[in-house]
UniProtKB/TrEMBL annotation:
Keywords: Membrane, Signal, Transmembrane, Transmembrane helix
Record has Isomerase as a keyword: no
Stretches with biased composition (Polar residues): 507-518
Name assigned to this protein: Putative transmembrane protein
Gly residues: compositionally biased ranges: 450-467
Transmembrane segments: 421-439
Protein's UniProt keywords contain Iron-sulfur: no
Record field: compositional bias (Low complexity): 468-497
Organism lineage: Bacteria, Pseudomonadati, Pseudomonadota, Betaproteobacteria, Burkholderiales
InterPro entries: DUF3999
Signal peptide: 1-25
Length: 526
């Protein structure tokens, strides 16, 4: 009994020790992704795709982890996308030179301009008539290493214009490369003007630009270039990702639409695609984190979709401060009919986060995400990158692992598997010990309770033994009777009956026939 109590105590001690030990197991996460690494690097960086955001259950990606081949979590840093501090752009007027069609297709220097020794352009002839004008040449001047030209602003003299334009860039006026395209719009209606006069250039560094008007050249009143100072970390930012085809459902009120991004995407661009052409409607956009939080206004703009022959033009994307809210609401002014019938679709754009980790341990490495109970354990990038080999190599995120693949990988490399096996063994052993103790206690409680009947049963057994002795004595008496006569047999029988009453003395009586024969004869003679 003492050993049983000692064994039970050890079982409970082991169970408490293992159950209280903290652990972060890879099977606590809803989704796993395989990581493909180059051999030999100490650090790796991976740009998180949309699938990781969709699987995350936290707004800050705090449930992302990197595990090595033995299931151990490794240190990592998570650089959330954020726009660098931007100074207001500078607008500078530029000179442009209308060109005839023949000059636009020429590989030599265009007709009607000359090139000075410093590269600047000068007109040598009058501009062509509007019917022959379909190209404009622009001299941006010397490019600065500390800034970039981000856009062209085309100020139109026409009150109504809608057309497409393509942009090409060159440094020598002979070799041209595509530099973008845009749709320009200027519509006046009921005393208000709706215009889109911006041509995005995405950081052009070339000296010259060439604008080709595909739907007829407009009357250009002036041209400005937008110059933005370069950020120190501009090269480290990831390209913007987009999630297309988000359907906005109509709400209970007219002009109200709701949609969800289904993930903590840091949305900084929102493109609203109107269902019907020739639609113009002011709108306000709201967002919130959950059903129990209030709506907050994040943007407002005039939405439009205009169709003119082969040209269709829509409102540009809304620029937002990075917003990780999942629920969104669009309220459209319905005084002029709203958006009409059809479905409003949305495209959300964001700059994805970059995760950097230490390749500690053995491969394969996996990325796990999707745990409601896990909190962020990321460290800063400066604290993570140490030593001379602090330049991260590029890692690629593979396909998501299925539940069966993740389970097999976890069972093969889970460092907590042995702990769970020991825990279950200790629990089963403890339960078995408790059952043994209960059985011993119940058995001990039944024995004293049956003491009285057991004594009576022993007495009955004694009587039975006495009866057997009586039968044996009778058999012996019969044998004696054959020698000494019936009177002597009667004496022996009486002795057996007396022995039967006295219990243990029966053994003495049954053992006395040899001597009792003489005594019996003496009594008969007397």
């Amino acid at each position: 009994m003492k050993h049983v109590f000692i064994l039970t105590g050890w079982c409970f001690a082991i169970t408490a020790m293992w159950a209280s030990a903290p652990a972060t197991a890879a099977d606590d996460f809803a989704q796993h992704f395989a990581l493909q690494l180059e051999e030999g690097a100490a650090y790796y960086s991976v740009t998180l795709p949309a699938a990781v955001y969709a699987a995350s259950q936290r707004h800050d990606l705090g449930d992302v982890r990197i595990f090595n081949g033995t299931g151990e979590p490794v240190p990592y840093s998570l650089d959330a996308p954020r726009e660098p501090p931007r100074t207001p752009p500078t607008l500078r007027p530029v000179r442009w030179f209308p060109l005839p069609p023949t000059a636009a297709s020429s590989t030599s220097a265009p007709l009607g301009v000359t090139i000075a020794s410093d590269g600047s352009l000068r007109a040598t002839s009058a501009p062509p008539a509007r019917a022959q004008h379909d190209t404009d040449l622009i001299d941006l001047g010397r490019a600065s290493r500390a800034s970039r030209v981000t856009a062209l602003l085309v100020h139109l003299r026409d009150d109504n214009y809608q057309g497409r334009v393509t942009v090409e860039s060159s440094d020598d006026l002979r070799h041209w490369q595509p530099a973008g395209d845009a749709q320009l719009l200027k519509v006046s209606y009921n005393g208000s003007t709706l215009s889109q006069d911006r041509i995005e250039l995405d950081g052009n560094r070339a000296r010259y630009l060439r604008l080709r008007w595909l739907d007829g050249a407009p009357y250009v009143e002036s041209l400005d270039m937008e110059i933005q100072a370069l950020a120190a970390d501009a090269a480290q930012r990831a390209e913007r990702a987009w999630r297309e085809g988000i359907v906005a459902h109509a709400g209970p009120k007219p002009g109200e639409y709701f949609f969800s991004t289904s993930g903590p995407y840091p949305v900084d661009r929102l493109r609203l695609n109107l269902p019907q052409p020739n639609t113009v409607a002011p709108a306000v956009v709201y967002s919130r984190t959950g059903l129990d939080t209030p709506w907050r206004e994040v943007a407002g703009a005039t939405l439009f979709r205009l169709h003119n022959g082969e040209v269709e033009q829509s409102n540009p994307s809304l620029e937002l401060t990075p917003d990780t809210d999942r629920q969104w609401r669009v309220v459209v002014d319905t005084r002029n009919g709203g958006l009409g019938s059809g479905t409003l679709t949305v495209a959300a754009g964001w700059r994805p986060a970059i995760l950097t980790f230490v390749a500690r341990g053995t491969a394969p490495f996996t990325l796990a995400v999707g745990s409601a109970t896990t909190v962020s354990s990321a460290v800063s990038r400066d604290d993570l990158l140490m030593g001379a080999s602090a330049v991260p190599a590029t890692a690629r995120l593979g396909d998501a692992l299925s539940a069966e693949q993740a389970a097999r990988a976890q069972s093969a490399r889970d460092p907590d598997a042995m702990r769970r096996y020991l825990l279950w063994a200790a629990l089963l052993l403890a339960v078995g010990s408790l059952a043994a103790i209960a059985w011993r206690l119940a058995r001990g409680a039944r024995v004293p309770a049956g003491g009285g009947p057991a004594g009576m049963s022993g007495a009955s057994s004694g009587s039975g033994a006495g009866g057997a002795s009586a039968e044996s004595s009778a058999a012996d008496a019969s044998g004696v009777s054959g020698v000494a006569g019936s009177s002597e047999g009667t004496g022996v029988t009486g002795t057996s009956a007396e022995s039967d009453r006295t219990g243990p003395a029966a053994n003495v009586s049954t053992a006395a026939p040899a001597t009792g024969d003489t005594n019996g004869q003496g009594e008969g003679k007397r």
